[in-house]
User: What shape does this take?
Amino acid sequence: QGAAGGAADGRVDVLGGLEDSKALAEECQEQLVTGVRNNFILEHDISELEQRIALLVRNRMTAEDEAAARRGKLAAATAHSHTHATFTGEQLARYGELLYLLKWRPQYLAALTTMLEPRDGDPRDYARFVVEQLYGARTVMSAREERHLQLLIRLALQGQFHAFRDNFGAFMRTTTVTTHILTLYTRRPGPVAALQAIIGDFVVDVASQPDLRLEIDPVRVFEELAGDFYEDDVGDDGFGAG
Assistant: This one.
């Protein structure tokens, strides 16, 4: 009877422990759901706050420009430089909203990036505007801006991939707006350090090989590999190894 009673007590303890663990898991799940919901709300509030700040800054700049124009300070400056376009406060507000959408909705800029052609202007100017002005300077960029710029690059690369699907050998081998954006982004301190950590040792190991082939044309690389395979499989005398 003593043994039976001890077993029963043990089962009770186990069941009690399971109930406590289940209650703790449910509590953690509720806290996780609440945290995710609060984080989403906070992200939305931050986006709205940034938009309002951007509009306030632009309105402040407009007011200062108008005040300077009344005092005649802009007349001397424009006499020695190109003519600046003047916008009303409503126009500047609309431009601010447009820039906000372009910055935080990368799919629009990605689509525009894939449609631009050399005749539309210097692609380097567009790339510098996107990387260095719209998303911050080379060393001044928030983590949120970094994520959206990376998403823009990913979407633009997907568009380039589909555009070159009939001529895949030219993919990433022609100078496009996307390649300029990617080049400017990889010059930033963060991407440079990431590339060094990921492929640095591999690049050093490959570059130290004495019989290294530096051909990058995929067609020629395939021809060389096919030639090597033919020589190994057929042999110099034209007959198979067997």
Q: What stands out?
A: The two ends are 81 Å apart (CA to CA). The chain has a mean pLDDT of 76.
